[in-house]
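Researcher: Next entry: Cdc23 domain-containing protein (Amborella trichopoda).
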Amino acid sequence: MAMPYYALYYFRKSAYLQPTDSRLWIAMAQCYETDQLHMLEEAVKCYKRAAHNIDTEGIAIHRLAKLHSKLGCNDQAAIYCKMNFKKMEAEQRGAGNACRSMTKKLLRAFFKGMRSTPPSGYLLTNMEHFAP
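Model: Predicted structure:
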């Protein structure tokens, strides 16, 4: 988008006239996400408004998950990712590659702070109770 300020100006005017049109809120959020503006918190607000106004295409929930992941709010990202999965199941669509990769990213981020390898002897001592 070459001129996000102009686009944002007109999307705001349109959203004032049609506040329940989720497509306008998504378009405004995309303006906020551009490299020129990079106002991700405002984009999150617009996507939430679009999701609240029943985004039939499911763009808002998917983008909310991605933005929260980018902002480091993995708990919120997981919530929106789960909402996206539920929406896809309700519409009887399979979870797409984008959802799968998002889930993998969230899991990696979640386990990133945890120990990557167990302490030495951990498996041997804790597996003893499984002996026949």
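Model: Note for the record: The chain is about 70% helix and 0% strand.
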